[in-house]
Amino acid sequence: MSGARLRKLVEEENVAGFIRDFASLSLDTKLAVLKEQDFCGKTIMGLAAELYLPEVVEKIIDSIPQDDLFDIVSIKDKHGDTPLHIAAYFGEEKIVKYVLNSKLTTAQLRHILNIKNNNKITVHQRAVSEGHLRMADTILDGLQWIESEEDKNSMLREAVESSQMSRVEAFMNSMSKVELYSQLAAQDKAGNTAVHIAAHNGYKDMIELMIQKLEQPDLCKLLKIQNGKGFTILLVAVWNKKIEIVTLILDSLPLAAMSEILQIQNKHGATAFSIVVQNGVMEILAVMVRKLPKADLYRLILLEDNDGDTAMHCAASGNQAYAAVFLLTRLTSEEAKNVLQVTNNSGFTPIEYANSYTNIDFVSSIITYQKQKEANLKGMSKPVHVLMQNLK
After folding, report:
1. Which end of the chain has the least Cβ crowding within 10 Å, N or C?
2. What are the chain's domains?
């Protein structure tokens, strides 16, 4: 399905046809189509705003992730007009309301509403200049709501930073669940939420309260939010060795969500799992391994960072012999063999990588493990717990 075909459906005001065909596309194709601009620089969303097709705009808003929606609503045509400028010009209040009530954060909405076109005019100013005063009031109300929400978030963040548990609890008790998620998910300039800050400082009681107050889907969404360095809340807790918080978060998640969150990588490609392995934090590693399905565990061990290092390479660099063997004994013979043969960007297997650091404990333990596996095949094996005990 080409972008030209979808654009033609919009031009023909064939809303049902657009919704049908748009729904059949993959997310990547949807995003590519929505970012296409015609000779005037207008996107499909801009065209839908011009032709007053609110159902098309609503379908787009509901179909794409928050950050991608922000990018698309921010696209300017050759006049510097965003889709909201176009809606404001034609007085299409319904379209403006769809955007204001969308999944966009307050910071994203503020940015979009403050975008100026080539004539240095904002969306609100465009609505006023065209005489659409009711729409202008709607936009102004939106801006005032954003300011109010940001004031609330500032107070919540201040209470978290200063470890005022009673204030945090009072704030959270005063909010609806929808409002609470919005406040907890709000990010500062560094991309940190209030929960990132609580995790960094080890405020377990605050994290526990947040987990109790949020619905499970909102909690999972919150735990996927990454700051400017790519750190999720779990990654922050792991990096700062806040073991109780890490365990609390892991215990709060269903298996599918935990697997997904553990695979999230920061800007360097590190995951919460690989950091735990590199530091040999067995209390946390044991929880992860116990909860993860075997296929997900294998996939996590093989996940590479920006240097091509897998979790086993991380264990090698940290000389974490016990953690390495602990993981290997949870894999099939073929999986364990594959894990030990993977090379990083420098061409090193985990054993070769450990040798480059002179990490003798790791090397000798892996060699012992391999000999034990050979003995298994010959019927001369020792129980796994004996092998693990010898490494302690």
Report:
1. C
2. 3-144 (1.25.40.20)
